[in-house]
Amino acid sequence: MTGTEIQKSGVNRMVDTWTEAAKVRRSFKAGPRLRKQRVLSTTAAIFQACILLDELRNAMGAVGLPKDDVGAAIAVVTPETPDKEDQVFVLPVPQPQKLPNLFAEMAKIERPENVLSLGILVWQRDRDPKAKDKAVVWAQPFLLGPRAEAALRKAREIFADCKGGKSTFN
Predict the structure, then answer these.
(1) Residue 145 backbone class (left: φ over 0; alpha: ψ -120 to 50; beta: rest)
(2) Phi, psi of 137 (to 5 degrees)
(3) Is residue 6 situated within a structural domain?
(4) CB within 8 A of 134, min separation 6: which ones?
């Protein structure tokens, strides 16, 4: 098979070099890029993150990997206003029995600040010795544009150790 034939057939020879965790990650990161804003309430964003985290944990378990090697978080950002500083908040999604704590934390942030749901952050550990990256963070954005991209970059940095936090960007 020539290089041109491989491209036309869609065969990906790199698949054989991927770890099991990388295959799970690839299945969740694949698909078309976001082309328009998805303006979600913080409650809807939390539910979306819970669903994604559950699906990821099930996918990890299906290939024999520890389900605790994935985590998710909600990233929210203050709106673009002249009197507010650009702030991004990262709130990890806890175990289901502790979800009321996440809603309470989100309510604390929303009271003094009006916030926008920026996206879902996902953290994954890869324990395979062949893995190039031992921990990976990626984002599934809800908002588009340069400001949202800058905020998501900062949010990914915050979530690199699978913990939440708050920071400024820009």
Answers:
(1) left
(2) -120, 130
(3) no
(4) 125, 126, 127
Number of separate domains in the chain: 1
For the stretch 114-136, pLDDT in tens is: 899 999 999 998 888 887 778 89
In this prediction the pTM is 0.82
Residue 125 lies in a domain: yes
Residue 73 contacts by C-beta under 8 Å, 6 or more apart in sequence? 49, 90, 91, 92, 93, 120, 121, 123, 155, 159, 164
**Is residue 89 in a domain?**
yes
- Which residues lie below 8 Å from residue 19, measured CB to CB, with a gap of 6+? 126, 128, 130, 131
Domain annotation covers residue 4:
no
Task: Select from 3, 21, 39 the least CA-distant residue to 122.
Answer: 21
Three-state secondary-structure class, residue 136: strand
Residue matched to tokens 């003094």: 112
Specify the length of the chain in residues: 170
Range of the domain at 106: 38-168
Rounded Cα distance, 29 and 76, in Å:
20
